[in-house]
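Q: My labmate handed me this sequence with no annotations at all. I'd like to see what the chain might look like in three dimensions before we decide whether it's worth expressing. Could you predict it?
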Amino acid sequence: MKEIKTRQGSTWRFYQHITAHTMRRTAITTLLVMGVSEVMVRRISGHAPGSKEFYKYVGIAQEYLNHEVRNAYKKLVELSSTSPSKSY
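A: Here is what I predict for the chain of 88 residues:
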C-alpha cells in the first residue's frame, strides 16, 4: 500500500474521490461481466433500449469476457498437449 499526499501535505483518501456515478458504472459493468442479461441490467440501470451510453458498458464487459475465454482456451491447449493420450 502506498500513501499519496496532496500538495498541502494531507493524505489523499481514495474513497473521498469516488462518486455515485462511478459506483453506478462499476455496478453495471460487474452485472454484465457476471452474465446478467443486457435487458435486465438496462432495466435496473434505467437506460433506454438502444442507448449508446449503455453499450459502452457492454463493450467493456465483452472485452473482459473475451480475455477470460482466451485464457481458458490457452490452459486447455496446454493441458491437452502435456497429458498423455489414452486409447480405449
